Amino acid sequence: MNGADRLCDVLLANGIDVTFANPGTSEMHFVAALDRKPAMRCVLGLFEGVATGAADGYGRMAEKPAAVLLHTGPGLANGLANLHNARRAHTPIVTVVGDHASHHLAFDAPLTTDIESLARPMSHWVGRASGPESVGATAEAAIRAAETGRGVSTMILPADSAWGPVEAAPVTPIAWPVPPLPDAPTIERVAAALRAHGTRAGIVLAGRSSYGAALETAGRIAAATGARLFGEVLSARTARGRGRVPLERIPYPIDLALAALKDLDVMILVGGQEPVAFFAYPGKPSRILPESCRVETLAAVGEDEAGALAALAEALDAPAQAAAVPVAAPPALIEGLAGPLTDDAITRVVAALLPENAILADEGLTSGRSFWSLSASAAPHDYLMIPGGAIGNGIPMATGAAIACPDRKVVALQADGSAMYTVQGLWTQAREGLDVVTVIYSNRAYAILRLEMQNVGAGHFGRNAERMLDIDAPALDWVSLARGMGVEAARAETAEAFRDLFKAALGRRGPFLIEAVI
Amino acid sequence: MNGADRLCDVLLANGIDVTFANPGTSEMHFVAALDRKPAMRCVLGLFEGVATGAADGYGRMAEKPAAVLLHTGPGLANGLANLHNARRAHTPIVTVVGDHASHHLAFDAPLTTDIESLARPMSHWVGRASGPESVGATAEAAIRAAETGRGVSTMILPADSAWGPVEAAPVTPIAWPVPPLPDAPTIERVAAALRAHGTRAGIVLAGRSSYGAALETAGRIAAATGARLFGEVLSARTARGRGRVPLERIPYPIDLALAALKDLDVMILVGGQEPVAFFAYPGKPSRILPESCRVETLAAVGEDEAGALAALAEALDAPAQAAAVPVAAPPALIEGLAGPLTDDAITRVVAALLPENAILADEGLTSGRSFWSLSASAAPHDYLMIPGGAIGNGIPMATGAAIACPDRKVVALQADGSAMYTVQGLWTQAREGLDVVTVIYSNRAYAILRLEMQNVGAGHFGRNAERMLDIDAPALDWVSLARGMGVEAARAETAEAFRDLFKAALGRRGPFLIEAVI
């Protein structure tokens, strides 16, 4: 066997059985090794950003890493934007980047690049195999770092480390350390703060605290203390829908964020960092919490959020149940719906019809902004956003989520401009037969930038600005684009047409795209 | 005025009047400043790799930089693969990457990244404005580095440097240093080597030496000494066609390269570096020149290749004309052509019908490999390849070349797998009405990787390898994809249908795509 075989064995022994791949020549021995391992599912992306974004969506839903296979520095570069999103989402990913054989690097062949320099900004851990016998230990270090640090590990695999011989030997799965819990003084300090400040205290639920048992426990803590529960501006994964503990979303627009948080004396962080302004604006603060607001960390990234919240609930003697959430009726719009299609009508239809246990992948940006509030009254679902703000996350994220959860319907709300960044992901949905309904908000503009231009005081646009902010000439034909990649598609131009199309799309299996012209 | 206005003034004062852009929020003040400068042509790409690849194609043809406008670290990351190609092509480019306002960086907002670390591997020069008054000098340093070093300059523009006020002041164009010529001993040493070794000497013409007057001079030197003239494995730009000084292309497959170069005693480099194996293979050398072959540099990158060759020709007392090139008849296949379409038939039709003074952008990879030899008998044209080997260069390169040379027909030979990386470039061709005919070699596989799998000794492919090397299920429908982006398109499945379609496409203006099913 060779180094590449050892790498496959280590991945599989540790439960990593999906590889999102876009290989090149320097990875051919790894491809050959994967080919000898039918237990590994290899999913091809026709662009590296599809592979990394799919690994992000997969990792968020599966709570374990996928592997990603990329080709030297340029291949890694193409995948970096979605590794950035994964890093901000604290998604574990093991990225394997092939490189030239080590003896070839000194010759500066055309594809030679400084892979470490490219990898570091988007990686929690970066390492390089130093020979075939080192591959196993390097892979184990990469997996351990990805899982314990909830981040992106980038392992560089020189071709000679892949093709060189290694002794056949059994691989032992990694013995996982128990994720740390906060110490007693931290629990007591946080409990005291919550007791003292009541509704002037907030808790930001990030990482793995915004769904599952952790979210339920947070609801009990809120019931005990009156604390406000927040989701991040762009949250990696939140359990939403009827009966779920509701979170306030920290608004993206700076003025709304300042207003939403202005009464807080203390903010408790669980599984994430202090929320700040997404961008800087002249004369506006970077910090969105009040100057006087104290920040306490209950559980840092990689710590046991659910356990920390349980300990806190116990210290607070919290009730056994969160406050009952008034079960809102589904948005009552479906029947009388008519007229020209608007982004609001789209989100209302989606909220009303979303099937139980769906996964909602939201890169709707300006058009999708009303979905958060409506999603509280939708059927229970998981709601994924783009925590890193690097557009082009949506289609790949939906793709990866569908692979992690083959029995759940995935609905992607997708801005048109952002969709184009990783449009190739539709092909992977077709190839793998994934159950994803993609709704394109076809507004034919970078609408968010039009708003931001107004924010910077540029009211009137001339030709150059129009040419950089509008994408209407020519208009993208999303039905053609989708069909070109083997995905069935249709266009809706009225609210009732959209409702009927969306209902029909939900009623079938496999990928489907709706171009919603607004 | 503000820092962004100053940046525009410095760019325009130095002849940089095209900006390939994909902006985001942190660049809104720069967008507003560009909007106040109608002399600047702003060309939008729907993905950053389109913008950087177009700047590469533009710079190769215009012999001056375009500006590229990108959005923070993830935006830069998306553009890096084609900056890599530009770096290897020695194309001058001035990349402007917006960043958060400097005071905002400490808050680690979601889009915060280490832009310098990302930029360095693909950049000749990296700098950051340190306030609005520094923008002018930083931009001048970026332009100077790009032009004198023939490379990628990456200028980081924090939002507060863009929006902060500067004193209005006239901008003086940069006083360009004369590109250096080799010293007399170098000329004499190279001349002596060529005299001594005759046909056992070679000259690799790279950079700006493989077209124009430099190529003609090289032909005179070959006539005087018998030296063999080589083009790089993947050359940035070569003048080809009937009557042009012919170059031998250094082959890409390692065994062919070794065979082609085995008789050389000395190799002279002009405007580039020593050719080496593209990839390493077990048991094969990295160096493709014979062990005993001496290497001499006549002109390094950024030096005056044409002047150096002229001085060398004079030292050699070379004849006034290169040896007459036997004018081959155009490939005689067009009339009798029939039957199923093959990659060979495609390249023959293209070589036969290519109009005078066309630009041929070649990312045909395995399918296009026969074009080089046929191009010698085609009408005179400029031939562009992908020197960095990072696929996804082709469509953007053709786009940028068409903007640099609006009166010339651009023909893009494009492998299907590679085309998908930056397929969004078709939209820019439609928006700008560019005169580009794209020929997609639709073989529905990463054919080059199938060959490489055989090279590594993996003869039989199982399911995992098939799933990573074939892109046939579903087949991409290139006519739909092109139409989805506003580009007219048609499919050819026989040789005669392709010939007729290609002829028709050449006879009209504007972008057209032919899916050539092989």
Describe this structure in words.
The structure is a homodimer of 518-residue chains. The first copy, chain A, has helices at 3-13, 28-35, 48-62, 72-89, 115-119, 135-149, 159-163, 184-197, 212-225, 254-261, 305-315, 343-353, 365-368, 371-375, 394-404, 416-419, 425-432, 447-455, 463-469, 478-484, 495-506, and strands at 18-21, 41-44, 67-71, 93-99, 125-128, 152-158, 201-205, 228-231, 238-240, 248-249, 266-270, 294-299, 358-363, 381-384, 410-415, 436-442, 488-492, 512-517. The first copy, chain A, is of the alpha/beta class. In chain A, the strands form three sheets. A seven-stranded mixed sheet of chain A has the order 9-14-13-15-16-18-17, sandwiched between helices. Chain A is globular and about 65 Å long. Chain A starts with a helix and ends with a strand. The model of chain A has no long low-confidence stretch (mean pLDDT 94). Chains A and B meet through α2, β2, α4, α5 and α7 of A and α2, β2, α4, α5 and α7 of B.
Give a brief outline of the structure.
The structure is a homodimer of 518-residue chains. The first copy, chain A, is built from 21 helices and 18 strands. Chain A is of the alpha/beta class.
